[in-house]
Amino acid sequence: MGLFPGSMVSLYKRLKLRETESKHAARQEHRWRKTCQANRSASGLARKNHTMPKTGIHPVYEETHVKCACGNEFDTRSTHKGAIVVEICAACHPFFTGKQKLVDTAGRIDRFRRKFAATDAKKAEIAANAAK
Questions:
Q1: What span, in angstroms and rounded, lies between the C-alpha atoms of 81 and 62?
Q2: Looking at the predicted structure, is the pLDDT value of residue 108 above 70?
Q3: Are 59 and 77 in contact (CB under 8 A)?
Q4: Residues 111 and 132 reside in one and the same domain
Q5: Rounded-to-integer distance, Cα 25 and Cα 17, Å
Q6: Is the peptide bond before 59 cis (omega within 30 degrees of 0)?
Q7: What is the pLDDT of residues 27-78, one digit of tens each?
Q8: Could you tell me which of 106, 66, 96, 63 has the C-alpha nearest to residue 83?
């Protein structure tokens, strides 16, 4: 037999395990508290008399006129200088209107249909030959 009987060794191991677990838990809590303190000080909660936002570093936020390709016009606020021209807005977008409206820019849809018309014709011809 060894120096300690079997039951004493297992008791010793269990006590050591509990001790290391408690040290680990204490270490994690300490890290968590340090992180919370750092977050509070970074967000300004720990400091008093703190003014937000800093002056002189933010872009100018002014009213801007927006014009859509569908003819809808509205005013909004933005840091963009000058008028804004958009292709699709909330008044003409299919998600908001519930209608499917294709916006054909420079005939792209027609080009796509011409490009794949030959492929579709071949598929139809093969299907017709297979049906015979």
A1: 8
A2: yes
A3: no
A4: yes
A5: 12
A6: no
A7: 777 777 777 676 666 555 555 555 666 778 888 889 999 999 888 999 999 9
A8: 66
Does residue 114 share a domain with residue 96? Answer: no
Both 96 and 109 in a single domain? no
- Given pLDDT bands bounded at 50, 70 and 90, which one contains residue 1? very low
Quick one: 65 and 89 in the same domain?
A: yes
Strands (E) in 14-104, as ranges, are: 62-68, 73-78, 84-86
Domain hosting residue 77, numbered range: 59-100
Q: Which residue type does 88 have?
A: I
Angle CA 44–48–50, to nearest 5: 60
Decide if 115 is inside a domain. Answer: yes
Q: Mean pLDDT over all residues of the chain? A: 76
What is the Cα–Cα distance from 88 to 67, expressed in whole angstroms? 10
pTM above 0.70, yes or no: no
CA distance 70 to 76: 17
CATH assignment of the domain containing 88: 4.10.80.400
Task: State the total domains in the chain.
Answer: 3
